[in-house]
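Box 4.2: Ligand-aware structure prediction
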Amino acid sequence: MNTHLQLDERGRLRHLLTLEGLPREHLLELLDRAESFAGAGDNRSKKHPLLHGRTVVNLFFEPSTRTRTTFEIAAKRLSADVINLQVDASSTSKGETLLDTLKTLEAMQVDLFVVRHQASGAAHFFAAHAGPGVAVLNAGDGRHAHPTQALLDVFTIRRHRPDFRKLTVAIVGDVLHSRVARSDIHALHTFGVREIRVVAPRTLIPAGIETLGVRVCHTLQAGLTGADIVMLLRLQKERMVGAFLPSTAEFHRDFGLTAERLAKLAPEALLMHPGPINRGVEIGGELAYGAPSLILEQVSHGIAVRMAAMAMIIHDRNPVAKGRRTR
Ligand code: CP
């Protein structure tokens, strides 16, 4: 996929489609900007005028709780107008194509599309066909990428373990179907993490993943021993065509993380999961909330990170008030 689409002629962020190939300084700027929005604690009442008069459309062709809602909250905190298009009640259900959907909404003077789609490459397709002043933010495309999830993951890690060069991160579970794993691997490498492991049965590891600079482990013991961060992944049954596993019970027996296993294999590790979680499958329910779990912190950080991404893409590139823009 053409990652150059993301930057404009001056090297500024034009769309956010993938973290692959995105320069470290852009990632750092996104995290630092997110830090300025997150502040020290609860700043719910704080509204920023940066996107006043701008229109953001959430276009989710797949279900979502965290990503869609935090994008909406983030856009509203930046004073944007937000439309959540109900895709199954839209004219796409009458056969309108992605391209015609894009062009129709563009005619309503939309500034930013936040797109989630089951097809890898859907956000790139939108970006390739978007008009000159219209930006696209990938909220998850197929198995390919989920850049804002990875940004909020590294944002969360940085708050607890700021020296990435000392970290061993274990990504455990359904790596094969996970866009989060791919984006996290790119982000963690960009920040110089010492070691990244992917931990799963052979059937859930994509062929050739070693080329991304990760160590493949096929047991929890090998994967978790010495890990500083354990990132669990959901079994994505909706993307499994055919038998990838004998059963979820067997997966839990061999790869499910319980408090007892974590205490034995990686007692100092912090626990993460992008959600939604499958209790009793990849994670014991007792591990979901409370230390060492950062799962709810990840959710909260999604707001600040998505505010940062939208501010950089829409406001920073063209801070002029709507109606006088230099599209
Ligand atoms: N992590 C994540 O993308 O969750 P949602 O599917 O609920 O948005």
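In the box above, the bound molecule is phosphoric acid mono(formamide)ester. The CA atoms of residues 110 and 149 lie 24 Å apart.
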